[in-house]
Write a structure and sequence with these properties.
Elements lengths: L35 E5 L5 E6 L5 E8 L3 E7 L6 E7 L2 E8 L14 E3 L2 E9 L5 E9 L4 E2 L6 E5 L5 E8 L4 E8 L5 E6 L5 E6 L3 E5 L4 E9 L7 E8 L4 E7 L14 E6 L25
Parallel strand pairs: 1-3, 10-12
Antiparallel strand pairs: 2-9, 3-8, 4-7, 4-9, 5-6, 5-8, 11-18, 12-17, 13-16, 13-18, 14-15, 14-17, 19-20
Length: 295
């Protein structure tokens, strides 16, 4: 609902032009005052409040001086609690439930790319619900920096919070995501590219070769299920790319029948950004013409 300035307001009740010109029409309505509190918050900290009465709404304001990518971390398992985000240009998010805002309950991209300006988070409760709530509006730039090829680990405490990690990647690089020990509870993760687009999302487990679309910082969001109570421990490794390719092939232009030996040589090059530390097998095929097929 809009916040009204102090003064006298006039409500117009207008009959439709399609109504009959004779007779009358009855109507009724009531005006209710909605209690609202408001306070300033900073990104990246847990905000707590309490809905004390039905129809109450709590407002939390913040100001951005630069374009900023944020993600809402719901910390209260109550389907009745809702949040909205309003900016100077209008509604950004409207009436989203705390239990459908992150982790497995929200598969769409949760990241909001916000322009500089004034913003308000509005907390309400449906069905006349009351009680405490908590949330964290996180700035992706504040994510913990991790290095591909090095073990990263963390703890979700409480178990329904979201942790942010970030790493630097180059356009075209291929990486994989190795969960070295499965979390001890329901945990999900998603990868966000430098532009704020979601690359993958799902239960926390291994993710195979993933091509990075652009150069910049990538954000990994590790999200606990809203129902989790106990702390969740996790670790993972971003496996850097190894891209082997064969070139400089040398072979005779003709071959002798009857089992005569022939010499073939080639060079394997690694076009990836990391050293190949494991063995591999090279295979080659011979064909009687320029086509590699059974004929």
């Amino acid at each position: 609902p809009p916040v009204l300035a102090t003064g006298t307001y006039t409500l117009l009740i207008e009959g439709s032009n399609f109504n009959s010109s004779v007779g009358s029409m009855s109507y009724g309505f009531a005006v209710h005052q909605i209690d609202a509190s408001q306070q300033a918050i900073s990104l990246g900290g847990v905000t707590r409040g309490t809905i004390l009465a039905a129809n109450e709404e709590d407002r939390f304001t913040f100001t951005l001086v630069d374009p900023t990518k944020v993600s809402f971390d719901a910390l209260t398992n109550n389907v009745n609690f809702r949040w909205s985000l309003v900016g100077s240009s209008g509604d950004v998010v409207t009436n989203r439930s705390f239990t459908a805002s992150d982790a497995g309950a929200f598969n769409a991209n949760p990241v909001l790319t916000l322009a500089p300006g004034e913003y308000t988070v509005v907390i309400t409760a449906a069905s006349g619900a009351t009680g405490p709530y908590a949330f964290n509006l996180q700035n992706l730039e504040a994510a913990v920096l991790v290095t591909p090829g090095t073990q990263a680990f963390g703890t979700l405490e409480p178990g329904n919070e979201t942790n942010l990690h970030r790493f630097s990647g180059a356009a075209g690089a291929v990486v994989a995501f190795d969960v070295q020990q499965l979390p001890n509870g329901l945990a999900y993760w998603r990868l966000i590219d430098p532009a704020g687009n979601q690359i993958f999302a799902g239960p926390m487990g291994d993710v195979g070769a993933t091509s990075l679309p652009s150069t910049g910082f990538y954000t990994i969001q590790v999200e606990g299920d809203i129902r989790n109570l106990a702390p969740i421990f996790y670790d993972f490794n971003i496996v850097p790319d190894v891209a082997l390719t064969v070139d400089s092939i040398t072979a005779p232009s003709t071959a002798q029948a009857g089992g005569a030996a022939m010499s073939i040589s080639w060079v394997v090059r690694n076009l990836g950004g990391s050293q190949a530390t494991q063995s591999w097998t090279d295979k080659f095929w011979l064909s009687t013409d320029q086509f590699l097929n059974p004929g």
